[in-house]
Each structure stands twice: as C-alpha cells, then as structure tokens.
Amino acid sequence: MMKLKFIVLITIILLNLNIININSQKIFYGYIKNGRFLVPLRGVFEEFGAKVYWDDSNKSIKIILDDVQIFMIINYKYAMVNENVYILDVPPEINNGRTYIPLRFVAESIGAKVEWYDKGMFAYIKYRDIEIIVKEASNESLKISIENKKVLGYSINLVKIPYEVLIQLIPRVVLAQNKISGRESFKSIINRTNPVVAINGAFFNANNEPPDPNEPYGFFMNDGVLFHINRNRSVLGFNHEMITKIDRINVKFTGYVEVDGFDQPQKFYINRINHTPDINDVVIYTKEWGKNLIADNYPVIYVSNNIIKYIYWGGSIEIPDNGYLILMKGEYIYSNDISRFKVGNKIWYEIEFSDINGNLLDPFWNDIFCAIGCGPALVLNGKVDCKPELEGFDNVKITTNAGQRSAIGITKDRTLLLVTVSNVTIYKLAEIMKSLDAYYAMNLDGGASSALYVNGKYITMPGRDLNNVLIFIRK
Q1: Euclidean distance between CA atoms 47 and 130, whole angstroms
Q2: What is the DSSP letter of 142?
Q3: What are phi and psi of 241, to 5 degrees?
Q4: Do residues 265 and 469 touch, judged by C-beta distance below 8 A?
Q5: Contact 169, 436 (CB under 8 A)
C-alpha cells in the first residue's frame, strides 16, 4: 500500500511540474529554422489521422483532417486554412529531397495543442487523445550494420536494422514518378525521398509489354491504405509498433451502395485496385494510378467522400483527391447492374484478408499501416518454406535458375534483414535467410532490379530503372 501511495504521489508531482516522459511517446524528428520547427510532410500529421497530398506539378501541399483543409506551396509564405489566408513565419521547403512544413502552424490549424520544452529541447503535441514528441534530428548516425560476408559459400550484402533503430524509422512504398506505371532510376528515387535505407521492391513488367507496360505485380500499402494487390502471394506487413510479419495473403473486395427503395445497402463486385482492366473487370482507381483515367467507352463512377458525384461513360476522367473512381467493364456492367448507381447515393468498399485457403488471418493484419508483397516466401515461422508454385510463380528465372536476388527478413528479436546476393537459386536464398536467423523472409524482385542503399552508400546498384522501392525514413 505504501508503494502504491508513493507512485501516485510521484505521478501527481510530475503532472504539477508539467514534465513529459518522452520515452513513453512516439518521437518524430525535424529541424529548427528562424525559430520555427519544421517537420517532414508525412509522419506527424498522418499520426493524427490527417490525409496528406502532394502535387509535384506545382509543388503544393494539401492536408485534410475532418473539416479542416490546409493548403501550402513550397517556399511561399502564404497559406490557406479553409477559406482564410495566413502569412507564415517560415514557409514549407524541400531539404535534401524531402518536404518539410511548419509544425506549430499546421498543428494549431487542426486544433492540436503545441508546447515547447527548453530543458529537453523538444516539442510536445497533443491532438485529442494522441500525444507525440518532435525532437531536432541528431547528427549521430543510426546504428545500422552493413556487412559483406560469406554465407553457405555465397558472398552476400547484409544490412541489419535492430528493433531499437527500426522504431525510429517509417517504412514507405515509393512508386517511380509517383504513379503505378512509372519508371525511375534508383538514384533519382533516393535523391527525392532522402531515406536512411532503401531496397528494391516487387516485380514489374520491365519489358514494357502490353497490356500493362511497367505495371507492378505486387501488394502495396501506405498509411493503412491499400493501393495495389497481388493474390495468394507473400506479403510483409508493418504495424504501428514496427512489428513485422510475413504471410501468404488473399484479398477480397466487397462494394456497398445505398439504393433507392432498399432499407439495406446493396453489395456489388469489385476485383482489383489500380490495375489495367481485363475484358471483364471492376477496378478501383486512386491517385496512385495517376492524375487521370482513360476509360474508353465504359461506365466510371466518380466517388468523393463516399458519395457518388458523377457517372461517366468513357473519356479522360480526373481522379479525385478525397475519393476514387470505379470502372466497370464487360459482363460486370450488367451483373453489378450499373442502373442501381445514382448520383448522390452513398457508396463504399471493404477489404478482407485471408490466407490462400480462405481462412481468416492473424488479427495482426487488421492493424498494419505499411506493406509490400512480392514473393515467394522463403522462411515462415522459423522454417524454410519456399514454394514458388504454390504462389503462382512458373517463370524459370524465379523457380529454377540462379541469378541476382534481393530478400527481406525479420529475426525473432525483430531485427530487420536486407540482403542482396549474386548467382543464387530461390531455394538456396531461403537457406541463406534461415542461416541468418530469419524467422520470416521473403524474396523481392531480382536480376537487374536488385538494389540496396544505406546511409548515403549504394551497396547494390540496379541495372535498370525501377517501378517501386521500399524505403525507411526518419520519423
């Protein structure tokens, strides 16, 4: 009882002294310029639930949270909050290829509380029940090890990120040219995103062949939003605590629309997201696809804030910032009954993950905020589990031949492993990852796509432009 009273007394004293335990809060990093804290565009405000949009054509930023919209332009000292114009002490800017915005202005515009603590040299921000700390980025290098070593007779490049470092980073899937079908050099992607670590991602149509030139064959999620899928293949996911797992995953979309004359919303079929459509298909298109969708002579439902705003038949249609397009093609125009969809009605879709046998997955997958899928799996639950054919791979470059390969894995103590290696089969790669104590491991795109970068050093350079890259940036 005396111990409990002592703890309560200390807690009351700390609260009265207004002392914050920064080790108990999520920490992000920025820098101070002219007395104002600048923080990375993504991270801090996405933590509060804001949607962040970047328009590369005019270097503009839009941040939306509930009924607040903030609009800023790089190096421009005027900002808009809804319909009001404000003068900024320090405008947003690009530093080392990364976009930074004024912390206090944006935080207070969305209704967050901001306090500066001189003693600890950090800012404390609270929005509703979410609390974070922003510190000035240290020049001290993160403790990430880089090795070139022999494993099972193969010379490998190995990057190890211990969990205590991993939780200071944010993973993101970066699309070349910020669109699904883009191609961009690895160096260009590194220069504009300024990551701590980067590795090439999922397979893509590198031969630029129709019907889907440059399109990826991967599963992509950022900020909890799924924007590309593959089915029945391996996916690596990160939750907000940077705990990671790999599973073979299937994805099911179910669309819902409110229909006049029905008490309950009516279901409709959706197949994929951000893919070139097949002859018979239903595809969702988001901003990751690009600015516009060329629809030919097929119906396209324009959705903004979960409301049907327009229904188009063909043409070039702009993809909305706060929504998406749904294209129906072939037999699904009739089976989904396009006549049910009316302007002004509510519409939405839900996503369900399962394993390749249709069983529900571990609840972990309900909480992921970033994911990348490629495959095949190499190690699952501490055992070599490499079954390319089970995941639908039949190309001998993947199933049989030796070649340049990249892989990602996680040890039981949550250390992240990034590996590139030459002249190895997929099965030998699985053995290599197991010998590195990987509890989970997955193959990434290889051959001329194999690429690895750490702290300013290019460890492995690809032989071609890439479509997608997995990066890790400072919080």
Answers
A1: 8
A2: P
A3: -90, 10
A4: no
A5: no
Place of tokens 């003068």: 87
The whole-number mean pLDDT for each consecutive block of 10 residues of the chain, a chain of 475 residues, reads: 43 44 67 89 87 88 95 96 96 83 95 88 91 76 90 98 90 96 97 94 87 90 95 95 94 96 96 96 97 94 97 95 95 96 97 93 91 98 97 95 98 97 98 98 98 96 98 89
- Find the Cα–Cα–Cα–Cα dihedral 389, 395, 396, 401, rounded to 10°: -90
| Beta pairing partners, 266 | 257
Helix-then-strand count for the chain, H and E: 8, 38
Burial class (CB in 10 A: 0-12, 13-18, 19+), 218: buried
Dist. CA 145–CA 339, nearest whole Å? 59
Report the run of H or E that residue 197 belongs to, with start and end: strand 197-200
Domain spans, the chain = 27-136, 145-249+361-474, 259-345
Q: Quote helix, strand, coil % in the chain, to nearest 5.
A: 15, 45, 35
In this predicted structure, what is the pLDDT of residue 351? 95
Q: In 25-173, where does DSSP find H-type helix?
A: 44-47, 103-109, 163-166
300 neighbors 311 (Cβ within 8 angstroms): yes
Residues 6 or more apart whose CB falls under 8 angstroms from that of 286 comprise 225, 227, 273, 274, 319, 324
Q: What is the pTM of this model?
A: 0.78
Q: Specify the fold of 27-136.
A: Copper Amine Oxidase; Chain A, domain 1 (3.30.457)
Beta carbons within 8 Å of 391's beta carbon, 6+ residues apart: 232, 233, 234, 248, 356, 375, 376, 377
Characterize the bridge pairing of strands 145-151 and 299-304.
Answer: unpaired
Residue identified by tokens 């149509």 is 205
